[in-house]
Amino acid sequence: MYNPAVTVRRIDVLIRILNGRKTIVTSNLVRAYSSDGKITIGNVSKDITTPKKLEYVPRKYLITKDSELKGLTQSTLRNLRWMMQKDILGQDMFLLGRPGPSRRKVALQYLELTQRELEYVALSRDTTEADLKQRREIQSSTAKYFDQSAVRAAIEGRVLVIEGIEKAERNVLPVLNNLLENREMHLEDGRFLIPASRYDKLLQEHGADEVSKWRLVRVDENFRVIALGLPVPKYTGQPLDPPLRSRFQARDVATIGFGVRITINVRTELK
């Protein structure tokens, strides 16, 4: 019986003999392809839907040339595969790593690959609840509330990318925790966000008119949160509370060093 692993080892030995040096041939390559509205990375597949607003989808984070995606390392492909698994399971993600653009780049690459709309918020010590929920502004001599990134992402089913979560103050964390755990949030204008399953059940039992009187807003089932942060206490910041930390599925995104060999290109098959 043909065994690919044995063949790879034989080729590895032959290369070492010919070159007189150690050469490592990777046998467990992660491959990815896309066709007919479906993206597949390794053994994980996900259907791609057309976004409502194409301008919200990240662009130019994947290098495309002659219908091929170039420059994706095996490390990046494994990170994208892990994110796709969590997205299919409906889980929120927490990408950890050293300071730099690596975590943000992986998140934006995944959104571009899956054609997901993005809402972005950067947390700091000055971030308040209003920056996540609603801001009160004057428009035409009237004070109105305007939804912010977290609320827009929840209602429209977008992906909320939160960067610098270790910088969040204690009074902001309960807002994030309730949104992550229960998909619930009380808004300043009197509306209340509830998860899609509960909203659909109430709509079926009481009707649209009654639900609208309660000022309930449906959180889309495709709403996801991707948090980007630094490991604390190695770096300066606030350690996450255990309740908030347990809401995420975490992954360490290692920084790709100089001289890393690109072992595979992702080919997009267009029909």
Automatic annotation (TrEMBL):
Signal peptide: none annotated. GO terms for molecular function: ATP binding; ATP hydrolysis activity. It comes from the Eukaryota. GO terms for cellular component: cytoplasm. Residues 92-248 form the ATPase dynein-related AAA domain. This is ATPase dynein-related AAA domain-containing protein.
